[in-house]
């Protein structure tokens, strides 16, 4: 999430290429006009969406994990989310990215036109208006953001993108429950466990668990 700007004494092609390879997104030279620098600062400020930094304004984040990729995980996650939603003043989102994909919506008998992949593609536009209009809503008031059948979605999510997504979701909901049951171990699941207010382990008396 860091903006990197290279500063040099000329626009030599090799110098600019070296700076870009090192990670710089922009290049400015000594003696640049004030208007050029002002324009650069405006562009840098507009590239990344704003994320709430106050923990007091952010909702609780719960992660539900299990080794077994079966429908039990989505079933338990859904009932936990519905129980949280039943409490007065609660606004709850279930992020169902466990396996099998889309199981929570199947249990509810609902379909979704906006899924987890869409949310990642629209990080800059992920505000309350988009959430109200696009996220699947159950009659209880519970919102559901589900994983599609598209392969490799979770593997392509970067840490910075996940941070932005969670910041937007936690500012819009009092509770965000993430179903990770059956999800493969990796950077995404590790981050979701580290940032969770509570981690719930789903186990039963079986060898796979």
Short description:
By secondary structure, the protein is an alpha/beta fold. The chain is about 40% helix and about 15% strand.
Your description of this structure?
By secondary structure, the protein is of the alpha/beta class. It has eight helices and eight strands. The strands form two sheets. Strands 5-6-4-7-3-8 form a six-stranded mixed β-sheet, sandwiched between helices. The protein has a two-stranded parallel sheet with strand order 1-2. Strand 1, helix 1 and strand 2 (26-29) form a beta-alpha-beta unit. The longest helix has 15 residues, at 71-85. The relative contact order is 0.20.
Beta-strand content bin:
15-25%
**Assembly status:** single chain
**Biggest beta sheet summary:** 6 strands, mixed
Task: Please state how the strands of the largest beta sheet are arranged side by side.
Answer: 5-6-4-7-3-8
